[in-house]
Amino acid sequence: MYNFAFFQSDPEISMYAVIRTGGKQYRVSTGGKLRIEKLAAVVGTELVLDEVLLVGDGQALKVGTPVVKGASVKAKVVAHGLGEKVMTFKLRRRKNSKRLRGHRQAYTEIEVTGIAEA
């Protein structure tokens, strides 16, 4: 009925974490690549993301209130880029008024290198 894949333990993934960055939450594991909101970091630099909301290692699960004390995620900046174009169109009928705008959201692609648990 429901897909609870988020909390199911995967034997290949030994440790995972849920982080918050850019106003969004992401589930990450070591070696995974992720596109997040653009960060002011140079390509190739190492980042430490310390807003860790949850840490799981397959058996135990630590949930923060709101963050897990002492937990952090290390990541390497792989690239910066722009997402797909999103077009918005407004039309006010019978008013001879229309507007077409496009937007491409900037992102930073990171690769998770490690998860440190408190």
Task: Give descriptors for this structure.
single chain; four-stranded antiparallel β-sheet; mainly beta; elongated; 118 residues
Briefly characterize the structure.
This protein is 0% helix and 55% strand. It contains no helices and ten strands. The model has no long low-confidence stretch (mean pLDDT 90).
**Oligomer kind:** single chain
The whole-number mean of residue pLDDT values reads: 90
Measured as a percent range, the helix fraction is under 10%
Order of helices and strands: EEEEEEEEEE
Strand order of the largest sheet: 2-1-5-6
Low-confidence stretches: none
Strand content: over 45%
Q: How large, in whole angstroms, is the Cα Rg?
A: 19 Å
CA(first)-CA(last) distance: 36 Å
Number of alpha- plus pi-helical segments: 0
Structural class by helix and strand composition: mainly beta
Quick one: how many beta strands? Answer: 10
Shape: elongated
- Could you describe the largest sheet, including whether it forms a barrel? 4 strands, antiparallel
Question: What does this protein structure show overall?
Answer:
- The protein has 118 residues and is mainly beta.
- It has a domain at 16-82 and 109-116.
- It is built from no helices and ten strands.
- It has strands spanning 16-21, 24-29, 33-37, 46-49, 52-56, 61-63, 72-82, 86-92, 97-103, 106-116.
- The strands form three sheets. It has a four-stranded antiparallel β-sheet with strand order 2-1-5-6, with no helix packed on it. A four-stranded antiparallel β-sheet has the order 3-10-7-4, with no helix packed on it. It has a two-stranded antiparallel sheet with strand order 8-9.
- Strand 8 (86-92) and strand 9 form a beta hairpin.
